[in-house]
Amino acid sequence: DVKVTQSSRYLVKRTGEKVFLECVQDMDHENMFWYRQDPGLGLRLIYFSYDVKMKEKGDIPEGYSVSREKKERFSLILESASTNQTSMYLCASSAPIAGGFNEQFFGPGTRLTVL
Amino acid sequence: AQSVTQPDIHITVSEGASLELRCNYSYGATPYLFWYVQSPGQGLQLLLKYFSGDTLVQGIKGFEAEFKRSQSSFNLRKPSVHWSDAAEYFCAVFSTGGGNKLTFGTGTQLKVEL
Q: Do B104 and A107 touch (CB under 8 A)?
């Protein structure tokens, strides 16, 4: 079974703190993604990565950065957390297909609250 | 840019009744289309996908979806809903011309009455 794990299910942080959300996948997937999920807005892509040390901005990258030092791990960083970053964060991974798309496998999510 | 519309935010059906969840997409070329389900407290699970070929696709848990190019739709159906189907359902589109990204709809919350 493909497994995508996220370091925390629930996280509470204070405004201005630096926050790290970790995601690990065990299927040797090249592609990894970070989304945030908000009621009425669905899932929105923050950042994605197609390879180690490679990253690309998604639709809403402002206020976030990412790190991919190892193939299996993709970290989302909130440099200075703000209350509008309170949300559910979902990590996903997929294997690439040339000229196509493969299923994304999702982790259980981290519900982040910024006070 | 591609977009996905799920016009129904909430739907309530009785157990045993049929279900149809609507999804409309906007994209010029042939899209890759997906339906995902999110049970409470869980991540997203793929129900089914359409890449090409037969426009009626079968998925897991007894779900199916039909791709209609003329209507730009990819509606999800189930003939008889079970109480365990209560969840949030997301339609998504991927297109190689759209930055290789998956674009999700806003989701439809399904409630099943016993």
A: no
Phi-psi bin for A94: left (phi > 0), alpha (psi -120 to 50), beta? beta
* DSSP labels, B41-90: T--EEEEEEE-SS-SEEE-GGG-EEEEEGGGTEEEEEESS--GGG-EEEE
* Token pair 């994605």: residue: A48
Residue A50, CA distances (Å) to A13, B74, B109 in order: 29, 28, 32
B93-106 pLDDT tens trace: 986 655 567 889 99
Between B30 and A63, the higher pLDDT residue: A63
Backbone φ, ψ for residue A60 (5° rounding): -135, 65
Q: Answer for the pair A48, A33: CB distance below 8 angstroms, yes or no.
A: yes
What φ, ψ does residue A30 adopt, rounded to 5°? -75, -35
DSSP annotation of B30: P
Q: How many CB atoms lie within 10 A of CB A18?
A: 10
Interface residue of A8, A51, A88, A101 to substitute, partner B, most B CBs within 10 Å? A101
